[in-house]
Amino acid sequence: MFIEILKSKIHRVRVTQANLNYIGSITIDENLMDAANLISNEKVQVVNINNGERIETYIIKGERGSGVICLNGPAARKFQVDDIVIIISYATMDFEEAKKFDPAIVFPDSLTNQLINPRS
After folding, report:
1. What b/e string do you get for 67-78 counting C-beta neighbours within 10 Å, with b at 16 or more?
2. Which residues pair with residue 66 across a beta bridge?
3. Which end of the chain is more exposed for a tag (fewer CB within 10 A), N or C?
4. Which residues are tagged catalytic?
5. What is the pLDDT along the chain (120 residues), one digit of tens a residue?
6. Structural domains in the chain?
């Protein structure tokens, strides 16, 4: 049996940009991506703490160290600059493997979007 479980989460990060005229997706600072074990083009769910909106999209790698969290395309209508969001990815795996899996969960500073305790 295979189940879907939490793989990665960036918890309570601040939206820095919203670009309605871009193709679509979410741009994420590469430092945050690395810390949360996320890769370019990976499907993510983005949950808006401010208004309850939830979307699914894919990741575009943002400039390392910039703190960028940019909702692109139609999502820019549901997410505004300074909204606090949670970015979540899931993985499908064997039930027994899932019991032993530890997700990567990151808690950045929600003012700067920088890692509080970055990995060396």
Report:
1. bbbbbbbebbeb
2. none
3. C
4. 25, 58
5. 999 999 999 999 999 999 999 987 999 999 999 999 999 999 999 999 999 999 999 999 999 999 999 999 999 999 999 999 999 999 999 999 999 999 999 999 988 999 986 554
6. 2-94 (2.40.40.20)
